[in-house]
Structure formats: structure tokens, C-alpha cells
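Sequence and fold
=================
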Amino acid sequence: MRDNHKTGKEGRNAKDSDKPINKEMFIAEAIDAHPEIIPMMMERGIHCIGCGASAFETLEQGFMGHGIPDDEIDRIVEDMNSYIEKNSDRKN
């Protein structure tokens, strides 16, 4: 039986791109919904994008695993959501 996990643009649901990022989201879920956050993650040394754990590890777990404290995780998530909101021309 095939895995139901959505990957790539063809698997994206229009509603997914409307969901804000939160630290409880699986890394793969956040990237599937908002691939524009990939450079932001890479700049912070978070290269979980291609990691097999991204399908079952949350953003918080991934960031903490790279030594980022919880208050910084909250700030990063806020930055991601601000970036998505400012740069999303898909909504209109």
C-alpha cells in the first residue's frame, strides 16, 4: 500500500498554504505547505529538509536537536509566519 504522505507541489492542498507555521508541525508538513521557508531554515543551520526524520519530527524537535533554545524557536516561527504573510501573493 502506498504512503499517503503528500510530497512536492502535486501533493499540496490549497488549504495547506493557508495554515500558519507552528512549532508542533512536522518539518515535512511545514515545508510542504510553505516551501519558501527552506532558505530561512538553511540560513540557521537547520538542514532537516532532506532528512528522513522530517516526516515524523516536529519543527521544535528539529530545532532543539540543533541546540536552538525554545525562546529562539518561537522567534524563528514568528519570523517564518511574517515572511510568509508578507511574501504571499497567492492569497489575492
Summary: The chain has one domain: 9-87. The mean pLDDT is 80. The CA atoms of residues 6 and 12 lie 7 Å apart. Helices lie at 27-33, 38-43, 59-65, 70-87.
